[in-house]
Amino acid sequence: MPDDATKPTAEVIELRPAKATKASEKKWGKAVMERGFCVVPSLLLRAQPRLKLTPTQLAVLMHLADYWWDVARKPYPSKKALAERLRLGERQVQRIIADLEKAGFVKRIERIAKHRGKLSNEYDLTGLVTRLKEIEPEFRAVEEEVKWKRRAVARPGLKDRRVDSSTP
User: Fold this and answer.
1) Residues paired with residue 113 on neighbouring β-strands, in sequence order
2) Rounded Cα–Cα distance for residues 162 and 84 (Å)
3) Does residue 104 contact residue 131 with C-beta atoms inside 8 Å?
4) With contact defined as beta carbons under 8 Å apart, do 82 and 59 qualify?
């Protein structure tokens, strides 16, 4: 048997430290982050009024997003699981999802097992993604305008070149 001292040791070198994980751990704590996290675009939160989402509808969307980890695999939590997380009745969750579907944000896809009958629905969030992509340019334009105005205020005498661009 070879001696442990003669075995080559494998050294693992981390190429890039996980900055996001470290930053989130600094904010929330390592133990909290180890329980998982959900990636959601800030635009969804900022555009809530524009999308005419009630707080409860937004909460349902957030929970659906928490189940959606792979772009190729749609989330399929049960209404019971969503109801327990949200402290709502299953029927309330069903109505909220129906409203989200009517608004075009979610599409319910029935799942049926061959030998076990009906399974929980699968939820396609393509409508929500598409809507966010549609309104993003408007939000970006406003943010750029605000950024330009801040610069203009900081530098007295700075002209708005966009307005004066037609003059020689």
Assistant:
1) 117
2) 53
3) yes
4) no
Angle ∠(90,92,96) on CA atoms, nearest 5 = 120
Q: What structural domains does the chain harbor?
A: 38-154 (1.10.10.10)
108 touches 159 (CB < 8 A): no
What is the token pair recorded at 109? 């896809």
Distance, CA of 135 to CA of 62 (rounded, Å): 19
In the numeric block, which tokens belong to residue 70?
A: 């792979």
Cα angle, residue 116 at apex, residues 110 and 117 outer, rounded to 5°: 40
Chain length of the chain: 168
The token pair that represents 40 in the structure block? 């959601």
pLDDT tens digits along 11-54: 655 555 555 568 888 988 999 988 988 889 999 999 999 999 99
Q: How far is CA 96 from CA 15, 61, 76, 99, 104, in A?
A: 45, 10, 16, 5, 12
The strand pairing partners of 109, in sequence order, are 122
Enter the tokens of residue 9: 């040791």
Q: What is the pTM of this model?
A: 0.74
Name the nearest CA neighbour of 78 among 124, 127, 123: 123
